[in-house]
Design a protein that fits this description.
- The structure is a single chain.
- The protein is an all-alpha fold and 247 residues long.
- Helix content is 70%, strand content 0%.
- The chain has 11 helices and no strands.
- It has helices at residues 2-10, 27-33, 41-57, 67-88, 94-97, 99-114, 117-124, 126-154, 165-176, 195-213, 218-246.
- The radius of gyration is 18 Å and the shape is globular.
């Protein structure tokens, strides 16, 4: 068990938080939605698999390029923010720090390339798309939360009591950094802001101000992370159900 715990720690999986006191007002919220923080290896692996599956499914050139180019492109699209932000704060890019990302991404890519029926079944099933959205947005929220908090701890304060704009920018990139990959795109993605970009920016602003202006305790980090996940899921679910109604 010690080896398993050490392996999870190296891969970036945090241990489960201590249970809150029964009389704590936040107990119900955190206890019932703590799975959205992806602190368990199994939950994070499932959401990572769904996240990378959706990313590969959006890759239109899967039939016309070789596997190496395709997998590299999907990795950049999936972890663009996890590459850029760690470089800004002197950290290790996600694809290098977490072997699971590359393994699961490559597995999903090969599955969809050589068994394209899987993609067709997913696109025709509203139930599968529902769970795909849950996993995708929970994983994206985990990235935005993690990079916002990490950059807040790494960037020194300047004119205010805490770093203000740096963590917000880093958190926003965490949620939509893949749009800028490869970097040859430059600032072109900013010419037409998409809903995921706006949602990532709003979540980064809200989370950063909440944990710094209310209370920077671990408990508020947890509440903020859960709120970001629910925010992303709700926005995507509204768009999904509106799409279903039109079909």
């Amino acid at each position: 068990q010690g080896l398993i715990a050490e392996s999870k720690r190296k891969m970036g999986f945090r241990s489960s938080p201590e249970p809150l006191p029964a009389d704590d007002d936040s107990s119900f919220f955190v206890d019932n939605f703590s799975f959205l923080l992806l602190r368990q290896f199994e939950m994070k692996a499932i959401c990572m698999a769904l996240y990378t599956f959706v990313v590969v499914l959006k890759f239109k050139q899967i039939d016309s390029v070789n596997a190496v180019y395709g997998i590299a492109s999907c990795v950049l699209a999936a972890t663009g923010g996890g590459i850029l932000v760690p470089l800004f704060i002197n950290g290790l890019p996600v694809p290098l720090a977490n072997d699971c990302y590359l393994i699961i991404m490559a597995s999903n890519y090969m599955l969809l390339k050589y068994v394209p029926a899987l993609g067709s079944v997913y696109q025709e099933s509203h139930t599968l798309q529902f769970f795909g959205i849950l996993g995708f947005e929970t994983m994206r929220a985990s990235v935005v939360t993690g990079l916002t908090l990490a950059s807040s701890a790494a960037i020194p304060a300047s004119y205010f009591s805490f770093p203000l704009l740096g963590p917000i920018i880093c958190g926003t990139l965490g949620g939509c950094g893949g749009a800028f990959m490869p970097l040859s795109k430059g600032l072109e993605p900013l010419s037409s802001l998409t809903n995921p970009m706006k949602a990532a920016a709003a979540a980064a602003v809200g989370l950063h101000l909440y944990v710094n202006l209310v209370d920077s305790s671990d408990l508020n980090d947890e509440r903020g992370g859960i709120a970001v996940a629910l925010f992303f899921i709700c926005i995507s679910m509204v768009a999904f159900f509106n799409k279903v109604k039109k079909e």
